[in-house]
Write a structure and sequence with these properties.
Elements (H helix, E strand, L loop, with lengths): L10 H8 L8 H14 L12 H8 L3 H13 L3 E4 L3 E4 L10 H10 L3 H25 L2 H14 L5 H18 L3 H9 L1 H10 L6 H20 L2 H26 L7
Antiparallel strand pairs: 1-2
């Protein structure tokens, strides 16, 4: 089975760049990327055995050390498991570490589905809604001002990438303003996924959606500025729910035949 090759500046790599992560391009990272994308994309389904080391070495033309380090890295992400006399088996998806930046990038490289976006929105509601409430009572003046400024700059974005970068900055600031280090850490863990979602759901090309999205973020910022925890929670939940509806709608529309659109 052929490994997927990802030419140039791929979508997963672009998302990583927007999030401030610069992917390395050494042999280890190239093998890691291509194997990871192949596994996530279903070229090697759950429960199947990967090709032998000999086959993979011929496929990638790298040293055994480079290949083994790439396989160890993927195993550490909960995706594969090596067994003596059996080989390296692809583990069930429920064991994969979805908080891992590489695993998330591979999902968005192969094309996320609505179920993944829904799961992400659910974990965001579970964390970010309370984070906004805490931010309303714990934020510093500088953080409150930064949120108001960020909401304004969202309205000035002219590309999906610029919008996503500013949106990410807004939500990162809310997490930091919560004063809870665990919430800030969780926010950092899913930054890559958030960047992808913000890029997919970007309203930049829709004036009406753009105005509504900017206003919704403005409501979060103003509630936190005013110290109104309940309003901050409600506004954050609305932003997450509306973002999911917009991004899932776009994914479904993109996958319809052109004649059905």
């Amino acid at each position: 089975m052929a490994i997927r090759h990802t030419p140039g500046h791929t979508s997963g790599e672009l998302i990583a760049a927007i999030a401030g992560r610069v992917p390395s391009r050494n042999l280890h990272s190239i093998v890691l990327w291509q194997l990871g994308v192949a596994i996530v994309g279903g070229d090697y389904p759950e429960g199947t055995i990967l090709p032998s080391d000999t086959e993979l070495l011929a496929q990638f033309s790298v040293s055994r050390t480079v290949l083994r380090e790439a396989l160890k890295t993927i195993a550490a992400k909960g995706m594969i498991e090596a067994r003596a006399r059996i080989g390296t088996r692809v583990l069930p998806r429920q064991r994969w570490n979805l908080f891992d930046a590489d695993v998330l990038a591979w999902h968005f490289e192969t094309g996320p589905d609505v179920a993944l976006l829904r799961s992400l929105s659910e974990i965001r509601i579970g964390v970010e809604v309370e984070s906004a409430g805490l931010a309303a009572t714990r934020r510093s003046d500088a953080q409150a001002e930064a949120l108001v400024s960020c909401a304004i700059r969202m309205g000035e974005a002219t590309t999906p990438e610029e919008f996503a970068r500013t949106d990410l900055e807004f939500h990162r600031t809310v997490a930091e303003a919560s004063g809870n280090p665990f919430m800030a850490s969780i926010s950092a863990l899913v930054e890559l996924a958030l960047t992808a979602v913000f890029t997919i759901s970007s309203p930049v090309k829709d004036d009406s959606a753009m105005s509504a999205t900017v206003a919704a973020h403005g409501r979060i910022a103003q509630a936190i500025l005013a110290g109104d925890a309940e309003d901050a929670r409600a506004a954050m939940k609305a932003v997450i729910s509306e973002g999911f509806a917009r991004s899932s709608g776009r994914l479904e529309a993109d996958r319809q035949p052109a004649s059905a659109r």
